[in-house]
Amino acid sequence: MTSTFKILFSIDLLNEYYTSLQCMDFNVVPSAETALLLKNYKMLYKFTGNKLVALVKVNDLDEPFAGIDIDKKFVFYLTLLQPVFMNITNLDLDNMGSRRFYFTNLNQNKAGSSLYLTNKIDDYIPTYRNADTYEPGNLVTNVDGVVFECIQASTGGHNTANRAFWKPTGNFQYISNYNNTAFYAPDSLVNDGAGFIFKCIRETTGGHTTTDITYWEPQGNFLYRPGGLVDDGTGAIFECIQSTKAGKNDTTKDAFWIEKGEFQYVSVKDMYPFVTNIYNYQTIIEANVFSIFVYGLNKTTGVYDLEITIDKNRIETIELTNNVQFDLSQLPAGRYRLIINTDEPVDVYLDNVAVYGNFLGVIEIFTHLGNTNEFGLLDVNGKVKDSIVAGNPVWLQYSIRFGNRLAFWKYFTPKHGVNNITDPPLVTSGYSFIQAPELPAKPDYFLSNIPIPLIEKPILFNLELSSTTDPSLAPNPNPQVTGMLTKNADNFYCNIYLNY
């Protein structure tokens, strides 16, 4: 019997800022447990450029030589090498201080032929259309951005004013509050009273509040801000460039949305609080008795609803407080769902090494997915997927795709020597620049009419100077410059200072 190494899986890190798409801003290393696992399974790993490749020794049947247990996971840490990544990438910077990235093959997010380790981008909540068919549980908005839930199947002709077919569920961030004595069917939506929306996943007649994750799934809210991503329902992804309520300005409104193509991107849904074994938490309501419920991965359902009992699950204090500290050292590193007293569930990633090592993210590749699953490690015959098909090499390839930053470009003209900023001859960029203050005053700066993507390849604009008739090329934003990128309210700005 002969043996050789073949690719078990690879992970590509992509960023649309780069012309090649190759994101080389990270290093990827295995956890200590994974390093041992790789050794035991006679595996090797290599991270080069933007690609992690995991190789496994196979026999002459292309089966893993040492086998692969179905209750394991490969864990890799992401180390940021290039801080410029924070400027060029569509990131929710407000969350970066308290959350980090978590990517996994459990997301099973496929678009086209690509297998993404990120969560699926949510569908845009559409505006009601009179000709469409709606089923109970479907959500729509009216022209004012008020969200409605369908309560009776309708094939058009019953608009949201017809209360026999539609139940008003509030505006972009309000849905009727949970009622502990009411009946809820699967897909019903409720508001927890604090503006967070939950969807019923199991029939209940009261007694199961929104903290009970076996009955309720958190849904977030319905306000879109710049940088937010949605699916238009056909698989096409759009990025918000101007704040809007759901249904108020749909993805056809190019003043509010820019099409990104049929890809799946890293989003705020892929960001989790990373915590240590000593977990500090602040409850909403003061108490002197605190109980914690821990839920791990249910591998049968793929949901974090498997209750795990820990010894130190109850804490009593002499005085009322909302600050509590739990000892989670019994738990192995990984993702968990925590519920403390009556607070909402919190999804966390527990790992001392990830926190103290200041890693920007974690990748978890689980081995239990079945051989018929495209995201599973082996094919239906228990063989690795590294093979030759129609003369081309194929293997299990995962992707993590970051979107590039969109920002308003702001050219400062301290000497007031610029008359206009325009496209070069024979070029139509679709962008224009607005002078401030307006004519006849001399300009202090020129601002792009809409956000412009940051890309590695320069976008060309002409400076029309007051001192000459010959145009000069406007410099592009330099993401390496400190203070180049600023944020005001919801919008990002690239600040470019001219010597004119």
Description:
This protein has 500 residues and is mainly beta. Helices cover 4% and strands 41% of the residues. The chain has a six-stranded mixed sheet. Strands 23, 24, 25, 26, 27 and 28 form a six-stranded mixed sheet that branches. The protein is globular. It starts with a strand and ends with a strand. Residues 170-175 have low confidence and may be disordered.
List keywords for this structure.
six-stranded mixed β-sheet, 500 residues, single chain, 4 helices
What count of helical segments does DSSP give?
4
Query: Radius of gyration, rounded?
Result: 26 Å
The helix/strand class is: mainly beta
Q: What is the number of E strands?
A: 41
The biggest beta sheet reads: 6 strands, mixed
Amino-to-carboxy terminus distance? 74 Å
Strand content: 35-45%
Strand order across the biggest sheet?
A: 3-4-1-32-8-7
Secondary structure: helix percent: under 10%
Q: Runs with pLDDT <50, length 5+? A: 170-175
Mean pLDDT: 88
Query: What would you call the shape?
Result: globular
